[in-house]
Amino acid sequence: MLFRTSPEKFWNLIAKKYAASPIADLDAYQRKIEKLKSYLSSDDDVLDIGCATGTQCDDLANSVKHVTGIDISRKLLDIAETRKVEREISNVDFVEATIFDSRFEASRFNVVTAFYVLHFYEDLDEAVRRIYEILKPDGLFILETACLGDKSIITGKLIRLAGKLGFMPLINILSTQKIEQSLEQAGFTVIEKIKFSESIDEYTLIARKPLR
User: Fold this and answer.
1) 3-state SS, residue 92
2) Any idea what the CATH number is for the domain that residue 195 is in?
């Protein structure tokens, strides 16, 4: 049950291998970054959940005021710190934390991003409500995650079983529809749904917290 109860140990174990892995579809990633930048402004304070080695944080940094990247893996964050220094980026901070950290007060961020991380939350609705809380009114939540519920049932069940047995962090079997429902229940409005890659079968969702 090692990785189920301590998922950070899994990510610390594979940190170097993860960091060495190339982006699966570089063209799609670059199109996604440019699209994200079109929603950002120089006054934005951004939180990136599950930032890993910080690539996305660094790539968005020149379009915003500040980026905070959070992750549960100290080793991934150490790599992120090294890469930030190499790229001479000064407006990004990396913090070992989760979204439930008390340092992230209500209505703090203009934008929250979460790429390939929501499926690691057992309670999706709780995570989405917390993200809604820490966003400012009119703030954006931009996300993309593995939706095994949209794929092979057998594959999803096998991955879920591996998580339950502790061979990897527990995976929540999500679908795009389930995520959209969770966003709407929390109060978000989905304003754009984009598929950047034909080889990676996930959507990027852009949702807005309404003005009060």
Assistant:
1) strand
2) 3.40.50.150
The answer to whether residue 86 sits within a structural domain is yes
| 110-165 residue pLDDT tens | 999 999 999 889 899 999 999 999 999 999 999 998 776 555 544 545 454 444 54
pLDDT in tens, 59-115: 999 999 999 999 999 999 999 999 999 999 999 999 999 999 999 999 999 999 999
Tokens at 119, concatenated: 């499926």
Structural domains in the chain (count): 1
Containing domain of residue 124, as a range? 2-146+174-208
User: What 3-state class would DSSP assign to 48?
Assistant: strand
Note whether residue 153 is domain-resident: no
- The Cα 7–Cα 163 span in angstroms is 10
The reply to whether 152 falls in a domain is no
Contact 150, 178 (CB under 8 A): no
Question: Does 155 reside within a domain?
Answer: no
End-to-end CA distance of the chain: 44
E strands, the chain, are 45-49, 66-71, 92-96, 109-115, 135-144, 189-194, 204-208
Distance (Å, rounded) from C-alpha 59 to C-alpha 37?
9
